[in-house]
Specification:
Length: about 90
């Protein structure tokens, strides 16, 4: 099955929403201060919104330690969902 992904620039993202990149984005590792390419599909949590056009996103490892934080334009991320819409059933 082929699934098509369409990025909706009008989606509403809020603080603590989980998002994923739609393309590779360069970043810098907090503690190592080294280049850290974040790949397509990399997940992070919104920690601040900038007028709906961009979001500050924090990236953590499986142990909960943050390794990067950067502003992401709204059109370069998608909102991830953990449950279907209530009216879709």
């Amino acid at each position: 099955m082929l699934i098509s992904l369409t990025v909706n620039s009008e989606m509403q993202m809020h603080d603590v929403d989980v998002v994923a990149f739609v393309e590779k984005i360069p970043a810098t590792h907090f503690s190592m201060v080294a280049p850290l390419p974040l790949r397509r599909g990399q997940m992070g949590a919104v920690v601040m919104t900038y007028d709906g056009s961009a979001f500050e996103v924090e990236f953590c490892g499986t142990q909960g330690s943050a390794f990067a934080m950067l502003p992401i334009p709204a059109d370069r991320a998608i909102l991830l969902h953990d449950a279907p819409l209530a009216d879709a059933a």
